[in-house]
Amino acid sequence: MTEETPGFDEKPDVPSGATPDDAEPKAAPQEGAAPAGDASAQIAGLTAQLDQVRKALEERTADLQRLQAEFQNYRRRVERDRITVKEIAIANLLTELLPVLDDIGRAREHGELLGGFKSVAESLETVAAKMGLQQFGKEGEPFDPTIHEALMHSYAPDVTETTCVAILQPGYRFGERTIRPARVAVAEPQPGAQAVKAEDGSEAGDDKDNGPEEG
Prior knowledge:
Mean pLDDT is 80; it is low at 202-215. The chain is built from four helices and six strands. It has helices at residues 20-23, 36-109, 115-130, 193-209; strands at residues 133-136, 148-156, 163-169, 171-174, 177-180, 182-189. 52% of the residues lie in helices and 17% in strands. Keywords: Chaperone, Coiled coil, Cytoplasm, Stress response. It comes from Streptomyces doebereineriae.
């Protein structure tokens, strides 16, 4: 008599009317799977967030560019002010040296610029020139009230306009700034000299017109 091994050939009980597939366990639905509508909503939300980030980045970039432009303008203003302050300081220093330069000029005119004093005087003039000091004012140049100061006035028959006939004290400028105008003696044309010249010219013209007639 053959003994049957229990548990190997036995089949689970299947209710009547059920198919064999019903006896097999069904797979559980996968967790995290979103419907198609939810995925579209997520994409739209991410796109909106990306647009917001892009807009914020553009605003910050514009702010940075504006700050950079303001900083460059500030640097230019500071540099311009620094140069202006430096020029004013140098001009003030040179102004204080003008009386010394005048003494040197008078000593040179009188032949007193000799020895060690001559060397020191020439060194001082060289340093002042390197700092930008320029001397101006010459005899015979037209009088310009913006750079000349007339201390003496006279009339002369050999001038056709107000002319500087003597430089009493030279003028000095630093760059475009006039530190001291040239102090001069001026001469104007003799009163009536232009009228006399005009009359002489007209008389000469009349004589020319009244010349002999050609036959």
